Amino acid sequence: MATDDLGRHIADDVVGDGGLDGLRRLSEVVAALEERRTAVVAELRRGRSATWEEIGRACGMTRQGATRRWSGRLRARSFGAAADAYQQGRPGYPQALIGSAVPREARRVLDLGAGTGKLTRLLVEAGLDVVAVEPDAAMREQLAAAVPRAAVRAGSAEHIPLADGSVDAVVVAQAWHWFDPAVAVPEIARVLAPGGTLALVWNVRDESEPWAAELGALMHRSARQEIDTRPLLPAPFGAPERLEIRWEHVTTREGIVAMVASRSYVIALPEDERARLLADVDRLLATHPDLAGREEIALPYVTRCTRVRRD
Ligand SMILES: C[S@@+](CC[C@H](N)C(=O)[O-])C[C@H]1O[C@@H](n2cnc3c(N)ncnc32)[C@H](O)[C@@H]1O
Question: How far is the CA of 191 from the centre of ligand 1 (A)?
């Protein structure tokens, strides 16, 4: 059977008697197919075995269309390649954050884009009933090992594997900027019980110390990632409450090098450029007069949280 006939045949099968149920089933299958297509594109790009031009042609798109469609998504899904560095180098969050990110009466909490479980662990330790959703298999593996008391599920912000109204609060740490808000906002609203809350959290490096400013300049010499860490959310979410906590992540030189290696824009660099950057970071930390001879290094952070309530 020709491929387009096969497609039509499958679509007819899925739609069945049509109506809203048929439309829902069809949308789920389209989302699953799109997910699979992204995985195939990711595989081709990882091995550099196809150019964007060739990928575009295979998908009936121009090179620019294919790049626009997938390069951001592939960056969003690149963390698994550095899951160990992520777990070793990325800071956690201050415990005081939990009281602001999750209302006192909440019990069932979804950690969305949970990564290796840096925030999940604090939620579990606060006695909450936590489900952690994460699309990347390598990150999920670290998460399940690090936080065995959390229920770990494969899924994404655009396709959350939970029932309607099944959680009291959703937290998204360091991941909102990777989501497609047009799809993620209604999807998050769907799984939240009425009156439930959504908290968006980012750790921002405080670069007021000269060595921390030099580190930032080094990290951004080949790429810079602009993130809005005080976002506004559309309906059905209400006015934002915002909070900032200043704290220090006490780590080591190796820990900071791993933190840099786990940034998506560093993962995406050509191998020689990436190695050069990591060596330069290591040299800065080893030779900067403010850090000389230190076993432990306190990296200052501001944790920013925006919390909104579902009407
Ligand atoms: C910077 S990490 C943050 C991980 C964790 N929340 C933390 O605070 O350490 C971003 C995570 O978002 C995940 N991610 C990317 N796109 C996503 C999407 N559309 N839906 C859910 N998670 C996504 C990535 O796989 C990655 O684990």
Answer: 18
Q: Where are the domains of the chain?
A: 3-76, 82-309
Band the pLDDT of 270: cuts 50, 70, 90: confident
Tell whether ligand 1 has an atom less than 6 A from the beta carbon of residue 255: no
User: Does 175 sit in the ligand 1 pocket, CB within 6 Å?
Assistant: yes
Q: What global pTM score does this model have? A: 0.88
Average pLDDT over residues 58-68: 95
Q: What's the pLDDT at 209? A: 93
pLDDT of residue 300: 95
In angstroms, what CA-CA distances link 185 with 27, 63, 74, 140, 182? 17, 30, 21, 23, 6
pLDDT of residue 81: 85
- For strands 297-309 and 192-205, give the pairing: antiparallel
CATH class of 82-309: alpha beta
Instruction: Write out the two tokens for 165.
Output: 């109204």
89 lines ligand 1 (CB under 6 A): no
Structure tokens at 58: 């295979």
